[in-house]
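CO-FOLDING WORKSHEET

Operator: S.A.
Ligand of interest: 2-acetamido-2-deoxy-beta-D-glucopyranose
Run index: 315
Mode: holo prediction, single chain
Checklist:
[x] sequence pasted
[x] SMILES validated
[ ] output reviewed
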Amino acid sequence: MKIPLFTWIFLIPFLTIFSGVNVVLVSGQCRDQRPLLELKNSLTFDNSASTKLVNWNSTPNCCEWPGIACDDGGSGRVISLDLSFEGINGGLDHSSGLFSLQFLQNLNLSVNSFNTPLPASFANLTDLISLNLSNAGFIGQIPNDISKLTKLVSLDLSTNYFLGGPALKLEKPNLATLVQNLAQLEELILDGVNISAQGSDWCKALSSSLPNLKVLSMSNCFLSGPLDASLTELRSLSIFRLSSNNLSAPVPEFLANYSKLTSLELSSCQLNGIFPQTVFQIPTLEILDLSYQQTPSGFFSGVPSESLSSDPPAQ
Ligand SMILES: *[C@@H]1O[C@H](CO)[C@@H](O)[C@H](O)[C@H]1NC(C)=O
Ligand SMILES: *[C@@H]1O[C@H](CO)[C@@H](O)[C@H](O)[C@H]1NC(C)=O
Ligand SMILES: *[C@@H]1O[C@H](CO)[C@@H](O)[C@H](O)[C@H]1NC(C)=O
Ligand SMILES: *[C@@H]1O[C@H](CO)[C@@H](O)[C@H](O)[C@H]1NC(C)=O
Ligand SMILES: *[C@@H]1O[C@H](CO)[C@@H](O)[C@H](O)[C@H]1NC(C)=O
Ligand SMILES: *[C@@H]1O[C@H](CO)[C@@H](O)[C@H](O)[C@H]1NC(C)=O
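OUTPUT RECEIVED:
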């Protein structure tokens, strides 16, 4: 028997009622609304700066709220949360609804003014792959709890401070303890964190724990030199930033062993010795910054003259 299409369309509501089967699409319906609203209610933020939080609750399905993404599989679980640039100035503590979002993989709280130490409950977010707390206003010691986030691929705790001292520090735990279980890390951005460690210590801490590192950014970290040869174990390194640390050491020849290096930034590092010519032979190198330092006489004696004349003359 052939039933015309329009008849089927007509029958659908009756079939649903009588079969008891719910045909309403549940896939993608948010299941994390309660912790999200708890989070919003606990945060203090500037309504005029906020573009995301102010618009939460605008639609019934919280997967559609700004700054939120749910799992593709339709589980209704929040996997990404971006609250960057929201004018948040407080209200995050260890019991925040944020830490009940157990399926979270990407979290960006950058550029806010939390003005509080990092809560230990970050350790609850064990599925995190990327954590961006850059210029989020967190202060004090970075807690050991961050080292429990063993799936992290990208970690950004950087601060640009101009006045006043560094906001975050790594003393107890130190850098070695922070990274010891973070073997998946590909990006480590710690600019402006007071790490204040000696050359062989911080170099060995990184080289022994982070075999997949591609981006290492530690400008303004109160690091001292010299650079330790163990760093060559970071074979995938592509971006290496150490500007504004008092290395007071030569640029080591082994930097030429990074076959994927694209950017080497060593401005304001009090470098001495002779700059190794072999670094210019890295075929992938695009950016080399050695600005702002008193180089000793002969520093560039190993450098081919065409390399030095590649910049257009100032003025
Ligand atoms: C963190 O996880 C623990 C153990 O799973 C749980 O008891 C606690 O409630 C969680 N914290 C928050 C703030 O959700
Ligand atoms: C973190 O967020 C800031 C902006 O809020 C961005 O500039 C930076 O690139 C992000 N970090 C990473 C590792 O993507
Ligand atoms: C937030 O951080 C993530 C990863 O760190 C980055 O990919 C994203 O672009 C950032 N968002 C903004 C608005 O900067
Ligand atoms: C950095 O940390 C070290 C060790 O904790 C401390 O002695 C030093 O005063 C700190 N530097 C600044 C600028 O805060
Ligand atoms: C760098 O490469 C050169 C040439 O392959 C090798 O002799 C040297 O031992 C390497 N240095 C380090 C620190 O691995
Ligand atoms: C850099 O460190 C060296 C050796 O510790 C020290 O003698 C020098 O004064 C420092 N320079 C600056 C600018 O802090």
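REVIEW:
The chain has five helices and 14 strands.
The CA atoms of residues 111 and 135 lie 5 Å apart.
[x] output reviewed
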